[in-house]
Amino acid sequence: MSVLFEPFPIRTMTLPNRLVLPAMVTRLSGEDGVVNDDIRARYTRFSRGGVGLIVVEAMAVHSAKSGPLLRISGGEFVPGLEDLARRVHDAGPSKVVPQIIHFLKIARSGWRQTVDMLSKDDLDAIVDAYGNAALRARACGFDGVELHMAHAYTLSSFLSRLNPRKDEYGGSLANRLRLPLRVMRSVRATVGDDFPIGVRFLGEECIRNGYTVLDAGPIAIELARAGADYISLSAGGKFEDARVIAGEPLYPYTGYSGDRCMPGAAYPDGANLAIPEAVRAALRAANLDTPVIAVGKLGTKELAEKVVARGQGDLVGMARALLADPDLPKKWQHGHEERVVRCIYGNVCKTLDENFKRVDCTLWPKKLGQAPESDDTTPPDWPAAGAELTAEHKEGRVVLRWKAATDADAMYGYQVFRGEALGEAVPLLTHHASVRALSARYEDTRVVPGATYRYAVKPYDLAGNRGPMSGTAHVRIPD
Ligand SMILES: Cc1cc2nc3c(=O)[nH]c(=O)nc-3n(C[C@H](O)[C@H](O)[C@H](O)COP(=O)(O)O)c2cc1C
Ligand code: SF4
């Protein structure tokens, strides 16, 4: 059996496998922050897919205004969250924890509150808010709680090397850790010893003068000693290098640090693996066996297994890969990796989040609002005459057209494969794009003059069954 599907104990919960859905804001809730039908549907879908741990998107521990964001800041949110935890447990094997967050104020004018504007009373209130929210998480029936200390938010800004405070909460690493550790200890004291607490923080800030793994190791050690049961490592996502758009609030994922947080198609797979590897090694050197969650373009079973085998993580986090196909864990476990609908890391989901729009995956059939579900095992097929793929050069683009495939159940889309010819060599075809089933057509705008391109397409259905590859078509772009 693959190491990925071994049960994995964390304090009082045992995950059915080592696959984790890290928190991913969905923008499905209203500004009231209450759990609604869309939220229930989104998370029960992940549980049916079999992921080991679901971290429910960041929810606020305090009542500050924000766009659409879940909340856990008062008793009025408990019934909805309780119902959510119960439904996720009923739907499948997953364990489920909420990610709880405190954030500072930002304004459309570009102004933002920074940690040096907080009084000692404000800090006490933050500690209390986390403790109370964690207690609510427990009362709601969640299996644990995750403290959000990553990205551009309050506790991450304390940990940051750019923390501007001049008192005992800023400056040295020990001072920058003071508030996060107070929160950690207070949450532990509030929820008791039999409730798992995870922490997510940055292994690297990815901004100028920000901290690197050299600080992240000691941070992980201190948080683990203060009671953290797992360490989930993210990267970047800071305000400091965010793009400034007049009249818009800053979105902390628009600069280089944002790219490192959600590495797009141009980044290699496993782009951030050096981070969990270094932090995990620091924990082990301090005799701590706290599990580490690695994340960042970990979309194939082979890579996920390597992460565990190489000691780059104990648990494998996959946000976008699971958004694209929540059934990925089931498919991997049962040897059907070829049926996974693979994320293409084009970051449409990230752009939706940035614009406060509901976060759907661009690969899903339009208007479905959820990843499709099907148990069908029959792959789609081409018409008797084949796909009849054509490739035509038109004003600096290549237009591909083919005949629609059919499926016993329902078509989902087509994978477009492309190879670029160098001299006489026959080019290797690699996955280039995915197209929804509605259009048996694709425009390739990323072509250069003088090059020859070869294409093929492959249909896939709602269950992810792949049909046969079409014949190839090639085109030379004039000089
Ligand atoms: C739309 C979207 C929303 C996200 N929201 C959160 C969040 O609420 N909390 C968090 O810690 N990370 C959030 N992330 C970051 C992911 O958890 C994850 O670290 C990142 O996407 C890289 O992992 P991946 O390559 O598996 O997608 C979000 C990512 C995306 C794409
Ligand atoms: S929208 Fe794009 S990046 Fe986001 S999950 Fe879907 S395929 Fe992946």
How does this model look, in words?
- The protein is α/β, with parallel strands linked by helices and 479 residues long.
- It has two domains: 3-354, TIM Barrel, CATH 3.20.20.70; 390-476, Immunoglobulin-like (Sandwich).
- The protein is 27% helix and 20% strand.
- It has 13 helices and 18 strands.
- The chain has helices at residues 37-49, 78-91, 120-139, 154-159, 173-176, 178-191, 213-225, 256-261, 274-285, 301-309, 320-324, 328-333, 348-354; strands at residues 8-10, 13-15, 19-21, 53-60, 70-71, 95-101, 145-149, 197-204, 230-235, 292-294, 315-317, 390-394, 397-401, 411-421, 430-436, 441-444, 452-461, 473-476.
- Strands 3-4-6-7-8-9-10-11 form an eight-stranded parallel β-barrel, surrounded by seven helices. It has a four-stranded antiparallel beta sheet with strand order 15-14-17-18, with no helix packed on it.
- β10, α10 and β11 form a beta-alpha-beta unit.
- α7 (213-225) packs across α9 (274-285).
- The longest helix is centred in the first third of the chain and has 20 residues, at 120-139.
- The protein is globular, with a radius of gyration of 23 Å.
- The protein starts with 7 loop residues before the first strand and ends with a strand.
- The mean pLDDT is 95.
- The structure holds flavin mononucleotide and iron/sulfur cluster.
- Iron/sulfur cluster (SF4) is lined by residues 320, 323-324, 343-349, 361-363.
